[in-house]
Design goal:
Layout (H helix, E strand, L loop, with lengths): L4 E8 L1 H15 L4 H19 L6 H34 L6 E9 L2 E6 L2 E6 L5 E5 L2 E5 L5 E5 L4 H11 L5 E3 L2
Parallel strand pairs: 5-8
Antiparallel strand pairs: 1-2, 2-3, 3-4, 5-6, 6-7
Amino acid sequence: MATQTLIVPAQIDARIFCRFALFDAFCRQRRWRTPALFAVLMLAFALACFAFRDSRGGAVLLGVVLLLVGLGLPAAYVVSFLLSVRKQSRHMGLDGTRTAYTLHLRDEGIQVVSGKETAEFQWEQLFRAYRVPGCIYLYVSQQRAFLLPEAGQGDSVWALLMKKLPAEKLEDRS
C-alpha cells in the first residue's frame, strides 16, 4: 500500500499570526478570565459606591474612579497584548506573506521543514488540532503549534487529521 503524503507550505503573514495569537491566548488558554473578573469586581464596587452615596459626593467620586480603573486596566491589558503581538510579528519578518515552513503529513507522522532544519512528530505525540475559519492550528505540545492556512487544502488536511487523531484531540470551530 502506497503511503499518503500531503505537503502543506505554511504561508504566514502578520494577520494570520495575530489571529492565532488571539485564539491561543484568549480562547485556548482562556486568559480573558482574569481581566473580566477584575472588571466585574470593580464594577460591583463602583455600583456599591453609587448606591451608598453621601451628601458630600465622596462615594460617587470613588465609584467613578473604580469604574474607570475597572474598565481601563483590562482595556490596557488587551491593547498591550495586541501591541506585543504586532511587535513580535514584525520581529519575525511577517510583513508580507512568506512560507515559514512546510509540513509533510504522512501516514506515519508529520515532518516539518524550515530552511535547513527538520523536525518529525508521530501522530500519537500531537497535543491537539483546532480548525478555525481559514486556518488549522496543529499543536505538537501545549506550548508549540504549527499554523496551516487553508489555501485550498483545508478540507483534505482536516480529513487526514480526523483519520489520524482521536476525536478528543480535534476541535472544529470553523
